[in-house]
DNA sequence: AATTGTGAACCTCTTCACAGCT
DNA sequence: AGCTGTGAAGAGGTTCACAATT
């Protein structure tokens, strides 16, 4: 299949959420213009994004909200449940365990890892914390497909290396470091400092402008 | 000043971190090729990004790590301290209060807000939790410049509206919703679901390919 | 009359490639 | 000899504008 850009995929995610909200409000039909308005983009962008995957609308009428949401769920692979491991049960990690949004979208945290001897063996939310020594056993047992990396930067690369060896191919990385991985492995970064620094840059520019 | 792209700014952030690591290791000189290698990009990209702001290297030699880090800190506005408010003291919010990486980069959380009557008045990490009713007073008192939005999607827009009225112009939004704000206000989004859904899409494509 | 789906035009970002400096 | 800084070329993403459809 033709390579679809990252931005198209992340916009599909936002359309998915938009459609869910509209459905909750009992709205059955929506135009590309309305979806665009809600998300501060252009209607051409919405239509182009969808066009990579098919024709989901009716000319003159727009899109059926339920239909389109289900189509996008299929495209993004949200119709199935994903088994997720969380590595690093610190502040960020613990917050993510209870993050309702994840489970709502079919991402189920099924395994916890941490190498701190004080934490190994403990339970959080009904999940036992494992040492990374037993990583491949747990990954196989729980059929882990995605790993969330919430460990300090120093050890993030080696944690990913271990998980890649067990066959995990998708990572959400919270460590502020660029992870190296084989081509068939995907690493997405969630780096809050980068966004804050962009705000800092923006405010600094503004001050100069004044 | 010429408009610099978001991607350039976020790469500057990663160069900043790369340089900090190199300095910690006692390395004094670095080439664009080395910076590129560490971050999985091309050396031309590194040089081009820097070229928007000046000439910081020496031909034939490369860049002085300390020099370049300080230059980037100035560009990004990291030489000053930023006063940050955190709105929404739930799981995510609480994790962010202790997030060391923020403070290290000069982002100091100086005020907490939450409208849950059980939380208002409590203290976390030496900070009192305020009700949003007193938002403008606190913003003025603590000279808040940046707000982190960690409230449920339903109320995120109205929280931002209130803060904009008090003069806050920069937001880091964790709510899974597109925030509307005036042109002179910047909103950066940190949406973990979007990244996870990109992983879900990637894995789904892979399965089809097999 | 309204709105989609899409080729073409446009714009922006990335990479190339090399002159210029150390 | 080695590496930067940058104009030009190339690639990729976004917007336009309109024919096609309901």
UniProtKB/TrEMBL annotation, chains A, B:
Gene3D superfamilies: NAD(P)-binding Rossmann-like Domain, Winged helix-like DNA-binding domain superfamily/Winged helix DNA-binding domain
MF (Gene Ontology): DNA binding; DNA-binding transcription factor activity
BP-aspect Gene Ontology terms: negative regulation of DNA-templated transcription; response to redox state
Any Pfam family matching the protein: Put_DNA-bind_N
GO CC field: cytoplasm
Nucleotidyltransferase keyword on record: no
Keyword terms, alphabetized: Cytoplasm, DNA-binding, NAD, Repressor, Transcription, Transcription regulation
Superkingdom, taxonomy of origin: Bacteria
Keyword flag NAD: yes
DNA-binding region range list: 14-53
Function statement: Modulates transcription in response to changes in cellular NADH/NAD(+) redox state.
Family in the record: Belongs to the transcriptional regulatory Rex family.
Subunit note: Homodimer.
Entry protein name: Redox-sensing transcriptional repressor Rex
Organism: Caldithrix abyssi DSM 13497
């Amino acid at each position: 299949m033709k390579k679809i850009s990252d931005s198209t995929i992340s916009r599909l995610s936002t359309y998915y959420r938009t459609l869910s909200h509209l459905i909750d409000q009992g709205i059955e039909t929506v135009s590309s213009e309305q979806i665009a308005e809600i998300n501060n983009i252009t209607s051409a962008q919405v239509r182009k994004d969808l066009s990579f995957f098919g024709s989901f609308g009716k000319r003159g009428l727009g899109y059926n909200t339920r239909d389109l949401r289900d189509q996008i769920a299929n495209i993004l692979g949200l119709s199935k449940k994903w088994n997720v491991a969380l590595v690093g049960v610190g502040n960020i990690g613990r917050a993510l365990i209870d993050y309702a949004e994840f489970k709502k979208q079919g991402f189920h945290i099924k395994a916890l890892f941490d190498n701190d001897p004080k934490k190994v063996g403990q339970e959080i939310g009904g999940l036992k914390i494992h040492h990374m020594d037993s990583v491949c056993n747990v990954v196989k047992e729980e059929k882990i497909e995605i790993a969330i990396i919430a460990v300090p930067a120093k050890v993030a690369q080696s944690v990913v290396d271990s998980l890649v060896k067990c066959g995990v191919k998708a990572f959400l990385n919270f460590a502020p470091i660029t992870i190296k991985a084989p081509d068939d492995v995907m690493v997405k970064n969630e780096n809050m400092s980068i966004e804050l620094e962009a705000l800092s840059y923006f405010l600094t520019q503004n001050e100069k402008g004044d």
